[in-house]
Amino acid sequence: MCVSVEGALSARDSAAPHPHHRALAKGSLFLMMGQAAGSLLRFCTNLLLTRVLTVGEYGLFSLGLTVFRLITEFALCGFQYGAQHFVPKYRASGDRGLVKGFVVFSFACTLCLSLFFGLLLYGFAGLMAQRVFGKESLEFSFRVLGLLLPLHVAMMLCAYYGIAFLKVHIHVVISDIIQPVLFCAFVAILWVLSRQGLAFVLGAYSASITLTLVAAGLLIRGVYGPAAGTSPAIYQRRQWGLYSGTVVFAGFFSMFLFQTDKIILGYYGSLEEIGIYNAAWKLYSFLGMSTVVFTTTFFPIISQVHAEGDLPQLNALTKLVGKWIFSANAFLIVIIVFYAKGLMRLFGKEFTGGSSILVIFGLSWILVSMLASTSGILRMTGRQHAEFVVTMAMLAFSVASGLILIPRYGMIGAAISSTASFILIHIAKAVLSYRYFGINPFGREMWLAFVFAFAAIGAGYAARTSLEHWGIGIGTAAAVIQFVVFAACYAALMLRFCLTEDDKVFIHIIRAKLRK
To answer: Residue 472 — φ and ψ, nearest 5°?
Structure first.
């Protein structure tokens, strides 16, 4: 992956940045801005929800959404990943007929499946609420969400097609701007009007999904445009179905793997515990922001580079993306681990008991960040069967550990079970990526970033200790100074020792896009 920095920085030089760098930079910029806006909006929405709902109602709403999202994953039938695999491949070969065929086929299949699963959720809402979770008040939530399922699935598929067509801004606008803005606005209206209760919140959520779907349909139609071509052959539809069918189980069970803690806690714990745990999880999700920013853009590129047979390029890109993910997450990990109690207090005093859960989540993300760049390699290179086996093994581990730990230790047991499963599945995917393709996410810059992060943490802690000893800064002021020293030291070390030519090209492209 030899890229001339002078070619990127000088307009007179005929050399240009590698197209994969340009795609990564452009897509990552949109996702970074969208994820930041979306995460802030979702955080504000959850703060408003804790004012509109009681802790128990907030736990009830969170548990209902957990089940709803699991069923959404199954109703999507893996076509969101199939779109990222097949559409870039067919567009690269210039076969617009197959692009059209896959789009029509995927929307038809997901519509049928979402109607089927939505009716099942509606019809068996009472049975699930009483027999599975032992909470009768869940029945109303399940019925409303069952009716909403087809609309939500269609909205999600439109968003994923934005990525498949390498128009990442479409995905950002749908998933991180329109829907979060609408839901936050509707909940804010409820708060201002003093309309409290779960029924009002479910109505606001349904309205936000419905309006977002209308906008998503218009956006994706403009990107897709007319596509001429013959109808795809039977064997091609079979290929799409087999790929997506395998991926849907891997995707569903992967999502179920990361929701197991909430499901088991929902069975054994109280609604108050579920609410506190979900609030900690919302803060924890900020750690996934930079991971999603880079991996979402990286996934279609994996498929394209693998189709070109350029494994050295794929290996180099994996190292580069991995370093970006870890470097960005280092700042968030420090905030979450060192300021957990203050962050949880934002939801209310009754939520501060979840600070230890937040610390466990933050510490686990250190290793996950270092391996995250390999998370989609198996799926995007046709090794989805291996990913399925790994996911099932980790799911069995997660269920077993959850059933052992959660009844005994409650929220702490759920956090330990969840983070252990999360770490193990990333290790397994990284090992298989190395075995099949020789891809190793650990480069020299990654290890330097790891060492520099701990050195900067030490510098921040030393600064805080010194200031408190001399009585210059205490409490919040000392905490702010500690983070400022950490951030300054870490940024300085990374810029001095870990800024490669590829990074300079990436930064140049980002600056050019921002100027436009």
So the answer is: -85, -40
The H-assigned helical ranges of 225-287 are 234-268, 271-284
Reading the block at residue 417, the tokens are 């079970």
Tokens found for residue 196: 């409290």
Structure-token match 């998370």, residue found: 375
State the amino acid at position 185 in one-letter form: A
Residue from 171, 184, 152 nearest 219 by CA: 171
**Whole-angstrom distance, CA of residue 99 vs CA of residue 101:** 5
User: Which amino acid is residue 336, in one-letter code?
Assistant: I
Q: What percent of the chain has pLDDT over 70?
A: 76
Say if CB 42 and CB 282 are below 8 A apart: yes
Residues 6 or more apart whose CB falls under 8 angstroms from that of 1 comprise: 18, 312, 313, 316, 317, 320, 502
Q: Which residues contact 451 (CB under 8 A, 6 or more apart)?
A: none
Find, among 510, 71, 86, 447, the residue nearest to 299 by Cα.
Answer: 86
**Tokens representing residue 114 in the block:** 């979402």
- Count CB-CB contacts under 10 A for residue 50: 19
- Residue 154 pLDDT class (50, 70, 90 cuts): very high
Q: Which residues have a Cβ under 8 Å from the Cβ of 339 and sit 6 or more positions away?
A: 479, 483
Give the contacts of 87 (CB within 8 A, at least 6 positions apart): 99, 102, 103, 161, 164, 165
| CB contact at 8 A, 9 and 147 | no
- Cβ count near 10 (within 10 Å): 11
In angstroms, rounded to a whole number, what is the distance separating the alpha carbons of residues 365 and 428? 16
Model confidence pLDDT, tens digit, residues 235-275: 465 666 556 655 566 666 666 777 788 888 888 888 888 88
Instruction: Determine how many CB atoms are found less than 10 A away from the CB of residue 63.
Output: 26
Spatial CB neighbours of 429, under 8 Å, sequence gap ≥ 6: 371, 374, 375, 377, 378, 387, 390
Compute the distance between CA of residue 455 and CA of residue 496 in angstroms, rounded to an integer. Answer: 14
Residue whose token pair is 């790891």: 450
What span, in angstroms and rounded, lies between the C-alpha atoms of 58 and 372?
31
Q: Which of 262, 270, 411, 279 is nearest to 345 (CA)?
A: 279
